[in-house]
Design brief:
By secondary structure, the chain is of the alpha/beta class. The protein has 13 helices and 23 strands.
Length: 457
């Protein structure tokens, strides 16, 4: 009598396994359980993540790899990575289809191949001919750039052993598979095991590995969360495919600052760096505009000036709509409540639309004051000196203005971009030691800021 093969059911969202099928996983996802064979214990013994030659040693005797990085010759990518590509690191880059992930890594791999040596580009989604066509368009042809279309991890490891490359590109992790696993490529078991193999190869051979990953419809990284824990750096590529600007953000970085961003412009010849993104995002500013003002957000170590727009219109559907692009909806509702309670603006019967020009999603709360002033301007129909004034500050529930971190950097960036007045929390005016020719206006509350902006000329 044939022996029955034992199987388990694995959630394709969180990786939870169960001996029986469940309609809803413990993570809350429905119909995400897929039947798979359990991974034999012998598989883990074949690919240990720690080599037997490792021995405990003093931290003083360990050579630092802080300055041993590969220069990608792409300044914005180097900034996000923390100064370059660290040897032996695993870097995961994710983004929506067609956003430019493959274009960016092909440009970076070509420059590294020209300067440092052999680079192995492994593609599981495109043929060698398709990659050659893209490389010709990007002018990324180099003899040291080796291309192979392969999805078997064991064969890829053999190629790495033969070529001994200085960099390996995997495009993408969802297409790889191991033969001794019965599950389909892209499943939780395959992604987890393939990622473990790649980590072992990179760490033991001291080779940096770039891994491309897909995202879900909601924009989150596809596959198990363990993938993000395994890698050293997680980069997220975002932007609208109908627009030319692309933003790459470091979500996790063991070798640099998180939340650092790099800005690119998509052109026919590839991704072009944008050295001064503030100037690009403020191009549409016009003088004396209703509902528009410049704000500043600190993205990593870089202060970034943005234009924020608000439109307030009477509701016609019976209930007020709140529509945002680039701004947290909960933050908007908080500011609307403060304006209604502390300033006396009736907004419960008004539709409010907010947009951050350029598709950037600013971090932090430094844009609170600018958003509130833009909403007030649109509601009352009074213009703002848009090209001369910038507002920076956090709004509390009591209506008071609170200081934000690195305010001096933001004010200096505003002065460099030609702004004449900057409305900031009053408590921060004395602490700022500035030589720039910009007038600092201190406001204690949101009502105080409105008085300075609209009633004191």
């Amino acid at each position: 009598m044939a022996k029955k093969v034992k199987t388990i059911f694995v959630c394709q969202s969180c990786g939870y396994d169960s001996p029986k099928w469940m309609g809803q996983c413990i993570c809350g996802k429905w119909n995400s359980m897929v039947e798979e064979k359990p991974i034999p214990a012998s598989n883990y013994e074949k690919s240990p993540t720690i080599t037997s030659s490792s021995r405990p040693q003093s931290i003083k005797n360990i050579k630092s790899g802080a300055h041993d990085r590969f220069d990608t010759h792409i300044g914005e990518l180097n900034r996000v990575l923390g100064g370059g590509l660290v040897k032996g690191s695993l870097t995961l880059i994710s983004g929506e289809p067609g956003i430019g992930k493959s274009t960016l890594i092909l440009q970076a791999s070509s420059t590294i191949a020209k300067e440092y040596g052999t680079v192995l580009y492994v593609s599981g989604e495109e043929s060698e001919e398709q990659i050659k066509m893209r490389a010709e368009r990007l002018d990324a042809i180099c003899g040291n750039l080796m291309i192979v279309s392969e999805t078997n991890v064991e064969i890829i490891e053999k190629y790495i052993g033969e070529l001994n490359p200085v960099l390996v590109i995997i495009d993408s992790i969802q297409t790889l598979f191991k033969q001794d696993l019965s599950s389909a490529p892209g499943s939780v078991s395959q992604v987890r095991e393939c990622a473990n193999n790649l980590m072992r190869i990179g760490k033991t051979r001291n080779i940096p590995i770039f891994i491309v990953a897909h995202v879900t419809k909601s924009g989150e990284l596809a596959g198990p969360r363990i993938l993000e824990h395994l890698v050293d750096t997680v980069l997220h590529f975002s932007g609208e495919r109908t627009q030319e600007f692309r933003v790459i953000r470091a979500v996790k970085n063991r070798f640099g600052t998180t939340s650092e961003i790099g800005v690119f412009e998509m052109k026919e010849e590839g991704l072009i760096e944008v050295g001064n993104p503030s100037q690009i995002f403020l191009e549409g500013l016009t003088q004396d505009t209703e509902g528009a003002i410049a704000v500043c957000s600190l993205e990593g170590t870089r202060p970034l000036l943005l234009e924020i727009q608000a439109l307030v219109a009477p509701t016609s559907l019976g209930f007020a709509r709140r529509t945002v692009v680039g701004v947290d909806l909960n933050r908007l509702n908080l500011i609307l409540a403060v304006l209604e309670k502390k300033v006396g603006i009736p907004l419960s019967n008004q539709d409010v639309y907010v947009n951050v020009v350029g598709g950037i999603k600013p971090e932090g709360t430094s844009y609170d004051l600018g958003l509130a002033l833009a909403i007030y301007s649109s509601m009352r129909g009074v213009p703002i000196e848009t090209t001369k004034t910038i507002a920076i500050g956090e709004i509390s529930l009591t209506g008071e203005l609170r200081a934000v971190s690195n305010l001096s950097k933001m004010v200096k960036e505003a002065s460099k971009m030609g702004f004449e007045k900057c409305i900031i929390p009053a408590k921060s005016v004395k602490r700022l030691q500035l030589t720039e020719k910009i007038k600092l206006i201190g406001a204690h509350s949101i009502q105080d800021a409105i008085d300075h902006m609209f009633f004191q000329k």
